[in-house]
Design goal:
With 73 residues, this protein is mainly α. It is 66% helix and 0% strand. It is elongated and about 65 Å long.
């Protein structure tokens, strides 16, 4: 049997526009890219082989991981 005695207000979530999400993604992507370029070059020179992921792919993954975290909190 369900208990309906507690009728508290539901938490409202803020709708995030696609434009805002894209702006944050682009910012994170552009900030991560130089660091991944340096790291990729270092690994290529140090170990003598190309890393599995390119700097663009690594920066893209960072953007995909970090941007939703901004809007969750």
């Amino acid at each position: 049997m369900s208990d309906y005695s507690v009728n508290g207000a539901l938490h409202q979530t803020k709708k995030v526009t696609r434009l805002e999400f894209c702006i944050y993604f682009a910012l994170i992507f552009s900030l991560a890219l130089p660091f991944h370029l340096i790291r990729w070059t270092y690994q290529a020179l140090r170990f003598g082989k190309m890393p599995r992921l390119s700097p663009l792919a690594r920066a893209w993954k960072d953007g995909q991981a970090v941007t939703p975290m901004i809007f969750r909190g």
